[in-house]
Amino acid sequence: MEKIIGITAEICGINTGRVSGCIKLLEEGATIPFISRYRKEATGGLDETEIDKIKNTYNGLKKLEKRKITVIETIREQDKLTDELEKKIIDCYDSNLLEDIYMPYKPKRKTKATAAKEKGLEPLAGLIMKQDGRNPEESAERFLNDNVEEIEDALDGACDIIAEWMSESIRARNSVRRIFSYEGEIVSKVVKNKEEEGIKFKDYFEYRSLLKRIPSHRLLAIMRGENEGILKISLEADDEKILSQLENIFVKANSPSGKYIIKSLKDSYKRLIKPSIGNEILAAAKEKADDEAIRVFAENLRQLLLSAPLGQKRILAIDPGFRTGCKVVCIDEHGDLLHNETIYPHPPQSQTSKSMSKINHLVETYDIDAIAVGDGTAGRETENMLKKMRFERKIQIFMVSEDGASVYSASKIAREEFPEYDVTVRGAVSIGRRLMDPLAELVKIDPKSIGVGQYQHDVDQSKLKNSLDTVTESCVNKVGVNLNTASVHLLSYVSGIGPALAKNIVDYRSVNGGFASRKELHKVPRLGNKAFEQCAGFMRITNSNNPLDNSAVHPESCHIAEKMAKDNKIAVEDLIGNDKILGRIDPTKYITENAGLPTITDIIEELKKPGRDPRRAAKVFEFDPNVRTIDDLIPGMELPGIIPNVTNFGAFVDLGIKQDGLIHISRLAKGFVADPTQIVKLHEHVTVKVIEVDKERKRINLERIE
Q1: What is the value of pTM for the model shown?
Q2: Fewest Cβ atoms closer than 10 Å to its Cβ: which of 351, 450, 639, 691?
Q3: Would you tell me the crossing angle of helices 597-608 and 558-567 to the nearest 10 degrees?
Q4: Which residues pair with 702 in a beta bridge?
């Protein structure tokens, strides 16, 4: 345990004591948001990213420990485990090296070498391998029998055994591994007669790049091309250089056995070592590319989930369409459906005046505060119609991303929420709720369907899910949830809760009419002390008798806030938001055995702005009214746009037309850009210059104007 903690600390570059405190909390069942927010003393103030890295590194090392036990037991069963070998395995913390150590003992399917051993040729292979001056042909005569009739057959069999021994040499494998890692080139070529079918992979029909320098998105694109049967890929290196190095390892000078050693060496490299190491290096590169794609996806998801909410307003939401009409719904400030109907303002019906009149009527009837318009088909046309209208009061009009709305509307979650309505109504409600509170609505949808990733179907799905779940949990707990209004799906991401307890909370709420205080959570079936400890600080109750229930002050620390108020001879509610009194409180006076300076400081900061939403406010955005299709674009134009997706090769920009434009990473800023997510954010409003328009391929190249 201590050894793994030490190695985890070394890999993560974090003090061992802080790592130890973090791992202890994780092992006790604490979540990352809880540790980061409420256990700073134990970890020295580690943030969520650092804790997540510790968790993943530690779990990886524990997995390696289990693998070592399997290796040791397998070798022991063969009665080949020595004290020296066991120590070598126990002390190994490199997965590649561990597999190299294990390779000679790993149970194998029948190979050319095992067939030769069954014929009794292993001693001959040993004699040749010694290269001690004996004549291999003369030595081979002693091994002739009914199964080995010719000297040539005996020598071929011995060479097969030697080739396998060479492939199991740690020194040889490391030598080849080193060259492939630093000098290996990935090469892709189009499969014959697949040129037309695979036109989207045209850039990779004849492609070559140093593997260590290829951008992750290019590697994933090439591998997707191979999976779809369009491309054939290989990993190439200087074979002559590698064989020369292997000769230095295995071949002794002026030995009669030399030609057989070289023959075995070439066979071993071509048939065994090169494919094995090549697959290993490619797998490692793929894993690295996966990690980068997942990182970008996770960052985009974080920004999307923390998008600006409009807040509890009455919304008229429109899911636009042409032939099938526009589905219109009205929802109240709690997101409950009040009314729905369909209007037909666009061709072929073109009932524009009637539709405008109907919208005006609905705005007045349901006291609407804002209008949300889906940004899909007919979205721009619907927005333009709305902007021509005159309302009795100020009505803000927002374009809202439809990505994933259709997935939600057909889901079990949507059917449970709106069993009596069809998918079009559910989709429109989702659009409206996204404007009101993006986080609360988007947690109902599989993140892969939201459209903010790159190659999300090509990367390690388990790793992707874990990363996106971690991000979602982080965002939900960063914002906090209203205990009396949050859905099952939102509650399930609260620290320490999960789907089962979330349902129990909602069921309790339905029967008892809501929670009067956070302490009442103890009455929820199966919600024990540990779950309460983990979740309570992230729950909010707006109308509780205890004002601290609507803050991020954890119930375990409420007595500290109460003492601060008492010491200043005021009520807690009068302390909250009182910057003057809070500013002169000496935090060191309130340090206890369980609450150190970081916790006390956090309490004071929270009391200044209790329950503050960390998200920015929603803003209306307008596209250039003169640009409606790609044909309206002219190089040199400067246009407003919104960032719908960020990748590691640049950022896509919605210009209000069907095709998104791309700001390549080289055009995001004046200087060098290593990571686009550090320059632009999802849903950011930007101004761009049109650089090039390829109407045939529907590609728009843009430059960000700073």
Answers
A1: 0.87
A2: 351
A3: 70
A4: 663, 690
Amino acid at position 124, single letter: L
Measured CA to CA, the distance from residue 186 to residue 281 in angstroms comes to 11
Residue 508: what are its φ and ψ, rounded to 5°? -60, -40
312 φ, ψ to 5°? -75, 90
Return the SS3 of 61. Answer: helix
State which amino acid sits at residue 188. Answer: S
Supply the DSSP symbol for 322: S
Helices within 437-548 (DSSP H only): 438-442, 461-479, 488-491, 498-512, 529-535
Q: CA angle 609-615-618, nearest 5°?
A: 120
Whole-number pLDDT of residue 613: 84
Query: What is the rounded CA–CA span in Å between residue 458 and residue 481?
Result: 33
From the centroid of its chain, how far is CA 350?
44
Residue 428 and residue 340 in contact, taking contact as beta carbons nearer than 8 Å: yes
- Pairing state between β 337-343 and 326-331: antiparallel
**Alpha-carbon gap, residue 496 to 534, rounded angstroms:** 5
Torsion of CA 441, 447, 449, 451, to 10 degrees: 100
| Other CB atoms within 10 Å distance of the CB of residue 656 | 23
Beta strands (DSSP E) in 315-369 are 315-319, 326-331, 337-343
* Residue 398 bridge partners (DSSP): 372
Determine the Cα–Cα distance for residues 31 and 232; give it in Å rounded to an integer.
Answer: 44
Residue scoring higher pLDDT (363 or 454): 363
Q: Which residues contact 28 (CB under 8 A, 6 or more apart)?
A: none
User: CA 391 to CA 394: how far, in whole Å?
Assistant: 7
**Residues 544-557: pLDDT tens digits?**
989 999 999 999 99
User: What one-character DSSP code corresponds to residue 29?
Assistant: T
Residues 650/591, Cβ–Cβ less than 8 Å: no
CA distances from 29 to 394, 472, 501, 506, 568 (A): 50, 18, 15, 23, 38
> Which of 405, 398, 396 has its CA nearest to residue 429?
405
pLDDT in tens, 231-277: 999 999 999 999 999 999 999 888 899 999 999 999 999 999 999 99
Structure confidence at residue 327 as a pLDDT band (50, 70, 90): very high
Burial readout 423-460 (b: 16 or more C-beta within 10 A, e: otherwise): bbbbbbbbbbbbbbbbbbbbbbbebbebebbbbbebbe
Q: pLDDT at residue 454 above 80?
A: no
Please tell me what DSSP assigns to residue 269: I
Decide: 503 and 509 in contact? Cβ < 8 Å: no
User: Could you read off the pLDDT of 77-130 as tens digits, one per residue?
Assistant: 999 999 999 999 999 999 999 999 999 999 888 999 999 999 999 999 999 999
User: What's the Cα-to-Cα distance from 349 to each of 242, 345, 425, 507, rounded to whole Å?
Assistant: 72, 7, 20, 46
Q: pLDDT tens digits, residue range 573-603?
A: 999 999 999 999 999 999 998 899 999 999 9
Sheet of 326-331, strands arranged across: 337-343, 326-331, 315-319, 370-374, 396-400
Q: 3-state class of 456 per DSSP?
A: coil
Tokens at 159, concatenated:
């060479």
Q: Using DSSP, how many helices (H) and how many strands (E) does the chain show? A: 30, 15
Cα–Cα distance measured from residue 493 to residue 470, given in angstroms and rounded to the nearest whole number: 9
Alpha helices in 592-640 (DSSP H): 597-608
